[in-house]
Design brief:
The protein is mostly beta strands. Helix content is about 15%, strand content about 45%.
Length: about 350
């Protein structure tokens, strides 16, 4: 009875927060996009969104708190990512388990480097820096033992750009179902529910809110696992028609861009919501990942040179008490971040 009562309470909280998410998504520009950055190299390699997989990777806790469990007590995860032109991103997470559940404590930081400052007349006035910072805590536990779990992240975010400052609060809620006999795991999450409390100026901006569904399934006779991720479930239209596209098909007489048919728009939108990932484990201590993000490719490619935009890949290697993850993400032709994650369990050193 206590288990069912706890399940109902957790479910009610998640439904209420998801409803708030749907109301809050009223448009406008996003702020605090650091909240959408991958928390580990494995997540980045598999598309950068929600992951649902029940294994020993404690670095998945920040993106999916419903995966938190007692076995991860004492886990420490560190990630660093180089972008371009001096921009750098990193995060650290520590996990601790108690009777009431498993907790996660984390910090994220994004530094954009230093910039030269000039007044309106072009006179140099020294330099300034810019950065985003996040302090977070997560909690997760089994609601139905070995079947159903739920979790939540609470995040405080700060942003400093020269003399401009902004702050906000955000919450993630997630639920996961797993069937170990079928090597199946399904997760639903509403992420970045919250608001900007302190604005840069007079304009109110919105957090990068999202509702995501992730499914992973391991093949029975092959050392491979498929990952399926569906994002922006409450926002169907993700298309953007660029009027400056020089390669768009135009009407011969009017020279106006040709309108896509209903079928073309439907197919394009459907694929924008979908990320496909594949993970292969040729050895117990080694796994390889690759994923394709169609929406990223459509939004970030160069018209005359799309290259490998939308593709991501990585490798995980277990070396004694350490897990090392590396990923490379083709966000844009000019931006191909390298992600490195190091994980270990501090409790293992006391044995």
């Amino acid at each position: 009875m206590a288990c069912m009562r706890s399940f109902r309470i957790h479910l009610l909280v998640m439904l209420c927060l998801t409803g708030f998410w749907a109301v809050a998504q009223t448009g406008g520009t996003n702020v605090f996009n650091i909240l959408s950055l991958p928390s580990s190299a494995r997540q980045a390699a598999l598309g950068g969104r929600l992951l649902s997989v029940w294994d020993d990777d404690a670095a998945l806790a920040p993106v999916n708190p419903s995966l938190l469990r007692p076995e991860w007590d004492g886990s420490l995860n560190l990630q660093c990512v180089d972008y371009f032109s001096g921009a750098f991103y990193g995060n650290a997470d520590y996990l601790r388990s108690f009777r009431t559940g498993t907790f996660r404590f984390g910090v994220q930081a994004m530094g954009y480097g230093r910039f030269d400052a000039y007044d309106i007349y072009g006179n140099e006035e020294g330099s300034f820096s810019a950065g985003d910072y996040v302090l977070s805590a997560g909690y997760g536990r089994d609601i139905v033992p070995d079947k159903f779990s739920m979790g939540m992240n609470a995040k405080t975010v700060f942003s400093y750009y020269e003399t401009y400052f902004s702050a906000g609060l955000a919450v993630d809620v997630a639920a996961s179902y797993r069937d170990t006999a079928k090597a199946l795991c399904v997760s639903l999450a509403a992420v970045n529910i919250g608001a900007q409390l302190v604005r840069y100026a007079d304009e109110r901006e919105y957090l990068p809110l999202d509702v995501q569904l992730a499914v992973s399934r391991k093949l029975e006779h092959l050392p491979a696992r498929f990952h399926f991720v569906f994002h922006h479930l409450t926002q169907w239209n993700l298309r953007y028609n660029d009027p400056t596209d020089p390669y768009v098909e135009r009407d011969v007489q009017t020279k106006k861009p040709r309108e896509a048919s209903g079928v073309e728009r439907f197919v394009d939108n459907a694929f924008r919501h979908f990320i496909l990932g594949l993970e292969v484990q040729p050895a117990k201590a080694l796994s390889l990942q690759v994923a394709y993000n169609y929406d990223m490719r459509r939004e970030m490619r160069l018209y005359n040179k799309p290259a490998a935009v939308g593709l991501s890949y990585g490798v995980n290697l277990h070396i004694r008490k350490f897990s090392v993850q590396y990923a490379r993400v083709h966000n844009h032709l000019a931006s191909v971040p390298n992600c490195l994650t190091l994980s270990t369990n501090l409790n293992s050193f006391s044995h």
